[in-house]
Structure formats: C-alpha cells, structure tokens
Specification:
This protein has about 60 residues and is mainly alpha-helical. It contains two helices and no strands. It has one domain. Helices cover about 80% and strands about 0% of the residues.
Length: about 60
C-alpha cells in the first residue's frame, strides 16, 4: 500500500479548509476595523470557498 501525504487525505483537505476559514475570519475583522466592504467581501468569499471544498470534491470531482 502506498503511503499518502497527510494533505492529500480527506482529513488533510479539511484541515486546510479550516485554516483558510480562520485566515478569512482575520481578514473580515481587519475589513470591519478599516470600514472596508471589499475586504470583508474577500474574507466572506474565502469562507464560502473553504466550506464548499469538501462537498465539491466528494460529489463532483471524485465521482
């Protein structure tokens, strides 16, 4: 059996998604502090992309 890298497994992908969500939260907080809607929108889009990563991978890419 071939040994996979941690980040190539399902758990590794979800870990990366969690890290992206935490970074996006910091970006949103910075946008609120600067009163910048664009920065908040970028953070929001990062959160949406990270949350959709797992379902897209399972139901679309791996089918």
């Amino acid at each position: 059996m071939e040994k996979k890298s941690f980040f190539k497994t399902k758990e590794g992908g979800l870990t990366i998604a969690f890290i992206v969500i935490m970074i996006a939260f910091v970006i949103i907080m910075a946008g609120v502090n600067m009163s910048s809607d664009l920065v908040c929108l970028i953070g929001f889009l990062l959160i949406v992309a990270a949350m959709l990563y797992s379902p897209v991978r399972v139901y679309i890419l791996k089918k």
